[in-house]
Design a protein that fits this description.
81 residues, mainly alpha
Length: 81
């Protein structure tokens, strides 16, 4: 198992980390391990596009068939003469 040392950590960051760890019932060291693991995991996973995220959200509800209106010819573009 590897070890790292973080130097020049702001006191405010250290304090918030200690509070976060206590709120989660973990040591500061374990809290840092979990934060780093999550950060690296997120970088390794490709991001989903908005359409994919919406599809996955509503997929359990089933599909909907929409009636498409008939296509009509395009209107003439405006003339500026």
């Amino acid at each position: 198992m590897a070890s790292i040392t973080v130097r020049k950590l702001d006191e405010g960051v250290k304090r918030r980390l200690r509070v976060r760890a206590a709120d989660n019932g973990r040591s500061m060291e374990e809290e840092v391990r979990l934060i780093l693991r999550e950060a690296v995991r997120r970088d390794a996973e490709p991001e989903k596009g908005l359409g994919t995220a919406i599809h996955e959200l509503f997929k359990p509800l089933g599909g909907v068939e929409l009636e498409l209106p008939p296509r009509e010819p395009m209107r003439e573009p405006p003339r500026f003469d």
